[in-house]
């Protein structure tokens, strides 16, 4: 049988039994047709192609466009075949990802322990390596490689720095150099281009070859017996345009993304020049060494690790270990298309207990070859995101992240510079890493192995070019240099450093959420609990050398519940510690202030009193202007005088910016910048008095003069305007100006209609009213609170819960609260539920049951009783399997309660439920409905059961059968909606049999858009006269014919109580339907 090229796709070629080397030889024959006849020779000592033919072949291949396209197709074939393999080291994505890589050789020479069986027509392969003038080929097994030292043949996989030490060559009588081919056993192929002098090991999947070593270059001749049987295969030439590659299957540098041509070839050429043994060398041993990382690369890595380890501990570090929480984005509740951070229930939170290891594990589990992974860590200002990011780089510097060769920590405030002169090295080696320098060799090494790079962009919200980075136009990345926006777009769109891990830290607001909609994983930095705040205060006083004042400071904090609630923020907790320490050092019997404004006025009072003339005003103006540009750092030259600069640094108002080599300063905390910005607004004359209320951010966004990036400014502004004249602003603003601003804000706050405000703005209004400390304003606001307050979907922080509870206590009326999807802590939920003015509340089922269990364990029987009686779930809509599971848990709680307590009444939440909707969709609906059907009999007051709710649940005939069994217990059910549930005649018959149990209560029955035919219509027609209370029945869009319609119409004549029978369906001729309607006008065809 003549050997020819198989027809079909790449996969058919791979699955065929043809030897790739034979196929390559056939391609050579076809290319050289008409030049010279080439025959397959069975003699091992006969060349199949001479040097002249070989040179001419290369010239023809270089000048042939089709040949170059063929090489590109082969490269695509390699990427397709090997992208899903699970091999380690170089065998993963081997041709594309690791050509020119400086990783060592993990399993350089592994024996081929099991050889596959070849087709019977093929001769028995030889296991002896053959040395030729250009190649050394043979099985890479220990038994057939006597020339390699144990360092080569027994190499074990270790870290990425693996070297091949000396290899022993045995001299002997020379053999002919023309021996250049050998038929080899079936096995794997692996290409290692970093071996010295083109030494290659072949051991990949699906190639039809065993492990093979190919040595390209001059070698001492080796004495070895060579069998004469078996066909010969021509040696593999170098691929055109692929320096250093001896395989036609290797792609060119142009095929490799983000890999410059010099970076591909420099190390190979260098190795061949320095380590290629001379053919004249003789002796028993000749060392062959694998190339290490370039000295400059190793030196840069060690310098980077040393710099991270030498960074001092930040003064604003949280001092308390915090666990990250997995988060997700969801579409906002308003009409805009913006996505925002979802607010899970307290019990739904998924804590990353393993910390950084779990964060990176999520990335590893989802990683695809050559695919960039984006991880975002979100949190409010001052939550400790930057400290956490710095700890990641320090963890790598200590050698605890071996999966990364390089970790780059980049503060974004030192990157946002205008211009179009950005290079990749500017991003990887920002001013924060100076005096470290990244030369071309280091950059080339990093670009060739992006999967070994972790890039951390800290404080990403400070960049102006953040929106739309993940949704830019497709196409190649513009050549460097480019704008910084283009550089970021290349990273986010997986075009630059493709395969790296990108870690972002940012605040969860503004346009950032749009850029992170396609992030692979999102985590959130949670707030401090009360216990963590107390631990923070203890550590602060221990580190400051005043551990004896811990208890006194905790007493001050616990004596001010407002500040205790605000201690969920590490930055604010630090400010409380600083003020507590100052008060304790004075030795006076005092207490902490009751507002945020009072806290910072007391904390900065000494600094204000000794400030240079105009110093505070100048710094406050800078804080406001930088905040409007979403920045928190400033150049030293922006402060006009050295005196002001020295005063601000000495008093701790600003500090040297971390991660910058230039003379940059940063505000010591975000809250301090907000306070100084509010100082500028309160005392400047550039803003007219009537424009001042717009800065409270209570008006619609389109009418605001700024985007509220400094989110705490409204509270500080309200507090500063109403501060006592002797404090803070008294020395800066004339009394007449202050009085005028007070009147403007007072008039504005009293004119607001609280019923028109959304939940978030209502909470902000309460905070601003509290900061004023004006009894008239506070009482006016609280008296206007509506009786029903819904915070559905609005995140409630501990300060929000505290200020809301205080407002409810002040108002002289009863309230009902909707606290679903607020993320409220169970303990804070108990504080609100315990208020006598709260008569009912709705909250997450799981969170409420956690609260009940906690109160039961604490022995709070009175509060537990109030929490059970006030809790309601009316109406209840199940939109996820968790909702059904939580409802089932509530029923089980009642059953346990009734079994443990004699004559215990039913839970009001279950007893009073009247409307239940089930909307899980066609996939989850059939799975979750059996659980719901099992607990339905418990809801004895259920009047409305909607199993459609604009969603096709498709419970089917089996679901209808389970539902029908509950009808005897649902004695007051008035509405039953079974539309769009894939009910057939079987289900209709089951339903008709059970409907008499609801004869006295059921008013409305809907079977719209099901699969009921004539048999089912007949069953419903027979039971219709028994439904004495039924008023409306809908059977439209089913599949019964005119016969079924006539039976329903005839039965309707016996039911005078029925008001409407809707039964239009496309399977009934329109004339028949019109005739039936003429007979009985109660038949609706709409």
TrEMBL record:
<dbReference type="Pfam" id="PF13516">
    <property type="entry name" value="LRR_6"/>
</dbReference>
<keyword id="KW-0418">Kinase</keyword>
<keyword id="KW-0012">Acyltransferase</keyword>
<keyword id="KW-0539">Nucleus</keyword>
<dbReference type="InterPro" id="IPR001611">
    <property type="entry name" value="Leu-rich_rpt"/>
</dbReference>
<feature type="domain" description="NACHT">
    <location>
        <begin position="373"/>
        <end position="519"/>
    </location>
</feature>
<dbReference type="GO" id="GO:0016605">
    <property type="term" value="C:PML body"/>
</dbReference>
<dbReference type="InterPro" id="IPR007111">
    <property type="entry name" value="NACHT_NTPase"/>
</dbReference>
<dbReference type="GO" id="GO:0005525">
    <property type="term" value="F:GTP binding"/>
</dbReference>
<keyword id="KW-0677">Repeat</keyword>
<keyword id="KW-0804">Transcription</keyword>
<dbReference type="GO" id="GO:0004674">
    <property type="term" value="F:protein serine/threonine kinase activity"/>
</dbReference>
<dbReference type="InterPro" id="IPR027417">
    <property type="entry name" value="P-loop_NTPase"/>
</dbReference>
<dbReference type="GO" id="GO:0016746">
    <property type="term" value="F:acyltransferase activity"/>
</dbReference>
<dbReference type="GO" id="GO:0045348">
    <property type="term" value="P:positive regulation of MHC class II biosynthetic process"/>
</dbReference>
<keyword id="KW-0547">Nucleotide-binding</keyword>
<feature type="region of interest" description="Disordered">
    <location>
        <begin position="105"/>
        <end position="128"/>
    </location>
</feature>
<keyword id="KW-0433">Leucine-rich repeat</keyword>
<keyword id="KW-0808">Transferase</keyword>
<keyword id="KW-0597">Phosphoprotein</keyword>
<keyword id="KW-0342">GTP-binding</keyword>
<dbReference type="Pfam" id="PF05729">
    <property type="entry name" value="NACHT"/>
</dbReference>
<comment type="subunit">
    <text>Interacts with ZXDA and ZXDC. Interacts with PML (isoform PML-2). Interacts with TAF7; interaction inhibits CIITA acetyltransferase activity, thereby repressing transcription.</text>
</comment>
<dbReference type="InterPro" id="IPR041267">
    <property type="entry name" value="NLRP_HD2"/>
</dbReference>
<dbReference type="InterPro" id="IPR008095">
    <property type="entry name" value="MHC_II_transact"/>
</dbReference>
<keyword id="KW-0805">Transcription regulation</keyword>
<dbReference type="GO" id="GO:0045345">
    <property type="term" value="P:positive regulation of MHC class I biosynthetic process"/>
</dbReference>
<dbReference type="Pfam" id="PF17776">
    <property type="entry name" value="NLRC4_HD2"/>
</dbReference>
<dbReference type="GO" id="GO:0034341">
    <property type="term" value="P:response to type II interferon"/>
</dbReference>
<feature type="region of interest" description="Disordered">
    <location>
        <begin position="224"/>
        <end position="292"/>
    </location>
</feature>
<dbReference type="GO" id="GO:0045944">
    <property type="term" value="P:positive regulation of transcription by RNA polymerase II"/>
</dbReference>
<dbReference type="GO" id="GO:0005524">
    <property type="term" value="F:ATP binding"/>
</dbReference>
<dbReference type="InterPro" id="IPR032675">
    <property type="entry name" value="LRR_dom_sf"/>
</dbReference>
<dbReference type="GO" id="GO:0045892">
    <property type="term" value="P:negative regulation of DNA-templated transcription"/>
</dbReference>
<protein>
    <recommendedName>
        <fullName>MHC class II transactivator</fullName>
        <ecNumber>2.7.11.1</ecNumber>
    </recommendedName>
</protein>
<keyword id="KW-0010">Activator</keyword>
<keyword id="KW-0067">ATP-binding</keyword>
